Amino acid sequence: MITFSEIAAQGYTKRKFKNRLMCLLFFVAALVALTPLFSIMGYVFIKGVGSINWSFLTQLPAPVGESGGGMANALVGTCVLIVLASIIGMTSGLATGIYLSEYGRGKLATIIRFSADMLSSVPSIVIGLFVYILIVRPMQSFSALAGGVALGVIMIPTIARSAEELLKLVPASVREAGLALGLPRWKVTIWIVLKGSLSGIITGVMLAIARVAGETAPLLFTALGNRFWSWNLTQPIGSLPVQIFTYSISPFEEWHRQAWAGALVLVLLVFSINLGARFVFRPQISRD
Amino acid sequence: MALDMVAQRCILPFRRLLKRKGDPFQMCWPRIDPLFSFTLKVIALGVFAFLALIAFFLFYSAWPAILRFGWEFLRTSTWDPVKEIFGALPVIYGTVISSLFAVAIAAPLSVGIALFLNELSPRKIATPIGFLVEMLAAIPSVVYGLWGIFVLAPWLGDVVQPFLGKWLGALPLFQGPPYGVGMLAAIIILAIMITPTISSISKEVFQAIPRSDREAALALGATRWEMMKLSVLGRARAGIFGAVILGLGRALGETMAVTMVIGNRSEISASLFAPGQTMASVIANEYAEATSDLHVAALAEIGLVLFGVTFLINAIARLIIWKVAQVKVTR
User: Fold this and answer.
1) Cα B148 from chain centroid?
2) d(CA B110, CA B112)
3) Residues A151, A81: contact at Cβ < 8 Å?
4) Residues 213-242 of B with CB under 8 A from A
5) Which residues of A touch B149 (CB under 8 A)?
């Protein structure tokens, strides 16, 4: 531990110099951290814009060696997976969040809260393994359903914790007012507490969606990937992140080009959901 | 006539029941409140169940490999799917080395950013920069990987590694041919990816320290840096430690970006220029194509080890952060 007398023993000029130096270092740290952000965004935009076109968004992947083609199936696949994941993540996540904030007392709630935190820190590849053993192996086939479940499990803790934090902000007097009017507790919970913080909860859900939209690892051996249209939930389905991964590690120039275009679409998708959640719904949160 | 009969026999008794004294609502669904809370409780317990199921299923699936190799699995370094000999040491080594180096780079950087945002810069600058750092966390990891393959790795191979080899080549860390792709690229990508995690939690820890502490130091004539050292860093030490460990947990489990730049070779090499492999990347690379039962089991055992290690590390980090700084941690 540094004591103040030690510091004061140094000369004033030296102290001032040290101060300047450290402040400059911290500023440089911020700049250094932002350099990769600008580099990544710059490359994704420049390379992506150069290779994106109408057929990229509307056509199936072309066979190896042929130019042209697109990622339309992967785009649709990502949307299907997100919908499946949201169904699982929202019902389970919201219920958990409501339980923790409205009913959760004592040891059980602590255990659940801790489990939610732990579940959110399980590596996503391990979630993929788990869903493979749970669903893919018994069904004997990779499937969109398994992919949706994997992403849904990842969404649960994020949504649960954000919903809990938000519902806890609702003052107790509001609940008491509802109960005093003779409403049963479940009605107070749903129609007063939940409805009142709806915009905040939507923000949480959208942030969770933005997070899983870019997940690749849990899809590698659940949804697998598919180069054609797939409308059957028990069959493998293509998705944007997996397609980008396959294309970028391939040896073909044309596929690299498409990977950058895919990355641009993915980044735009993730950022627009993320920013939409933060800015469209934020003013309403502070009003609540 | 017949309709009348139906009405009298079937509908009217029910209506009479409903019209009986008391709250009609409670007459219809008398037990909805306990049912509601019970349903929520069951679903919430599902979160705990998921965690337990993950551990159980991984263990179950890894059982053949555990039976076959025992502790040797973690100590030997041959990974040969063809001959069905599996030793996870190189993979564990790769994971530990890449994560530790990444944390060593990211921790000082992130604390610096947190100090800059929280103590030095005016709000007008801190808000946008803080926002941009958070955006770094929103970039999907496959995009990091893409950037790593086509931008970072060539740059490392052409510029950084020859430079390091020239000046620090005496160290075993910086020897060997400059491929670009390899351990160093993985370390740098991981460091970039965990920086937002560590810096945002450190920032929250700093914010939990009361203003008056800082004012006391300044009033005694401390410069800004001395103020930070005396009243911010000293008190936030445990919280920063928790944040760094949380970052370590993220680095251990990160898959895609690492898989794409680490080179994927199951070898232990002292040089950071050499290709390597991590627990997450070997699963990502081989699981979908693993055909023999033992190979699948070995990969599941690696998953089990990864799950166990990240669980422990994150549990420690959360407990520290919960106990000491009492700030909320949302991932």
Assistant:
1) 19
2) 5
3) yes
4) 220-226, 228-230, 234
5) 248-249
Longest dimension (CA), chain A: 75
B44 touches chain A (CB under 8 A): yes
CB contact under 8 A, A37 and B222: no
Segments making up each domain of chain B, as ranges: 65-325
Four-way CATH pick for B65-325: 1.20.120.80, 3.30.70.660, 2.60.120.10, 1.10.3720.10: 1.10.3720.10
- Contact (Cβ atoms closer than 8 angstroms) between residue A145 and residue A233: yes
The verdict on a CB contact (< 8 Å) between A19 and B224 is yes
As for the ipTM of the complex, it is 0.91
B28 touches chain A (CB under 8 A): no
pLDDT digits (tens, 9 = 90+) for B173-217: 888 888 889 999 999 999 999 999 999 999 988 988 888 989 999
Check whether A166 has a pLDDT greater than 60: yes
Q: In this complex, do B280 and A165 lie within 8 Å of one another by their Cβ atoms? A: no
Question: How high is the pLDDT of residue B15?
Answer: 56
The predicted structure's pLDDT at residue B80? 87
| Residues A130, B225: C-beta atoms closer than 8 Å | no
Q: Write phi, then psi, for A71 (nearest 5 degrees).
A: -130, 30
User: Rounded CA gap, A238 and A236, in Å?
Assistant: 7
pLDDT, averaged across chain A: 89
pLDDT of B331 reads 34
Task: Tell which residue, A165, A144, A115, has the closest CA to residue B43.
Answer: A115
Phi and psi for B292 in degrees, rounded to 5? Answer: -75, 150
Residues 111-170 of B with CB under 8 A from A: 112-113, 115-117, 120-121, 129, 132-133, 135-136, 138-147, 149-151
3-state secondary structure of B263: strand
Give me the architecture of the A58-287 domain, per CATH: Orthogonal Bundle (1.10)
Locate the domains of chain A by residue range: 12-51, 58-287
- List the one residue out of A192, A219, A281, A277 whose CA is nearest residue A80: A219
In chain A the beta strands, taken as DSSP E runs, fall at none
